[in-house]
Design a protein that fits this description.
about 45% helix, 7 strands, globular
């Protein structure tokens, strides 16, 4: 895994981002998620986040990320929101919650919006990951399905590594 996101719902998230940025290798792309406003986006960027992910569409957050030359992935649910986010400068549009829409929605969006890079988040698991990629997702947003709370609590890093390897394998196979 070369991309990691710390959601701002994590206790002391900005400190976690700051410490992770200092300790992780430079080839790891580190970002902040569940960013709802410009103040939070700026704080995350100053803490070391290289990208910002949001569950909603906030045009001011997109503008702020451009000001700081950071990647931005706002959330959207409808075709109108997806296009609005893309036209406002989103690097990738996070479709959330993807489990409510399913892979066929992604396939349907490729027709009228082939230029838009979309990422499913919420409902992506080992059973659906390949389907989302084959349907047109550019990448996957995976949370507790990969970073299982039970495994984290038990400090079962072997389980977490195994899950990560499984997802990487699925992505490689789906991309051919």
């Amino acid at each position: 895994m070369t991309v990691a996101e710390v959601t701002l719902t994590v206790p002391n998230a900005l400190d976690v981002i700051r410490k992770a940025r200092q300790e992780l290798p430079s080839n790891i792309l580190l970002g902040a998620g569940t960013v709802l406003d410009t103040e939070s986006a700026r704080a995350a960027i100053l803490a070391g986040a290289e990208f910002i992910v949001a569950p909603t569409l906030n045009l001011d957050v997109i503008r702020l990320c451009h000001r700081y030359d950071k990647l931005v992935m706002p959330g959207a649910f409808t075709p109108t929101e997806i296009l609005t986010a893309w036209e406002a400068g989103a690097d990738i549009v996070k479709v959330f919650p993807a489990e409510n829409l399913g892979p066929m929605f992604f396939k349907a969006m490729r027709g009228p919006l082939p230029q838009v890079r979309i990422m499913p988040t919420g409902g992506v698991d080992l059973n659906t990951a390949a389907e989302f990629l084959k349907a047109g997702a550019c990448c996957l947003g995976i949370g507790s399905q990969m970073v299982e709370p039970k495994a984290v609590a038990a400090r079962d890093f072997a389980r977490l590594r195994d899950l990560a390897r499984q997802y990487v394998s699925i992505v490689k196979q789906a991309r051919g």
